[in-house]
Amino acid sequence: MKFLLVFDFDHTIVDENSDTWIVKCAPEKKLPNGLRNSYRPGHWTEYMGRVFVYLGDNGVKEDEMKRTMTTIPFTAGMVDLLGFIGENKELFDCIIVSDSNTVFIDWILKAADFHKVFDEVFTNPAAFSSTGYLTVQNFHAHHCAKCPKNLCKRKVLKEFLDKQLERGVSYTQIVYIGDGGNDLCPVMFLKKDDTAMPRQGYALEKKISQLAQDLSPVACSVVVWSSAIDIMSYLKLLIKE
Q: Is 7 in the same domain as 28?
């Protein structure tokens, strides 16, 4: 009996958007209007690439970025939840599927000593160039019309499950924990024994409710959370069953 926990990162594990948090490093803690207005829907990664160039051009170094990123707050109850999962790793496989980037997530998880809780992190690859600039790339290419160009979370989840099956690992239940519009695509892939846990008041919860109103509800169970303690209570019930 093993459960797969799939976490989004921004506004789920941490209570902010890591990509906008980095702006605290910019001169006067803001971006010029031209740069801010250059974002095109579905092309967030390219936009962040331009933000990182701007930070690099303004002399913002890796250690300053790291110091800033490790002050990002965890969502209420998340530290307890991740501690609980860490203590019960024999029951839970745990992955992150996020539109953030490898550098930010790695810094944040390691600073709080939570990196061992997660078996794998699927996010946009990032690295510092030889000139000290942070660069970021799209996670993959895909053909899903619903998702941003750089990341279809359903595709990531499906490929992960296929790979696990090849290793002889299958799951009693998948629990998907997220908040954003780009979490809907993987939630619609879940089966009736699985559970989607959308964060209360965020886009994912609204989109799931809209589907139910349109009489095409998602196949899985839906359990809304506002604090990660709600998620922990749900997981404790699952283990007892």
A: no
3-state SS record for 137-205: CCCCCCCCCCCCCCCCHHHHHHHHHHHHHHCCCCCCEEEEEECCHHHHHHHCCCCCCCEEEEECCCHHH
Residue 54 sits in the same domain as residue 94: no
Task: Render pLDDT for 115-170 as a digit per residue (tens, 0 to 9).
Answer: 999 999 999 999 999 999 999 999 999 999 999 989 999 999 999 999 999 999 99
> Which is the catalytic residue, given 10, 93, 183, 230?
10
**Residues at the annotated binding site?**
8, 10, 19, 99, 179
For residue 148, the enclosing domain spans: 3-15+74-239
Residues 233 and 200 in one domain: yes
Task: Evaluate if pTM is beyond 0.70.
Answer: yes
Same domain for 211 and 158, yes or no, is yes
Q: Are residues 60 and 84 in the same domain?
A: no
> Which residues participate in the annotated binding site for Mg(2+)?
8, 10, 179
Binding-site annotation: residue ranges for substrate: 19, 99
10 is catalytic: yes
Q: What is the pLDDT of residues 75-99, one digit of tens each?
A: 999 999 999 999 999 999 999 999 9
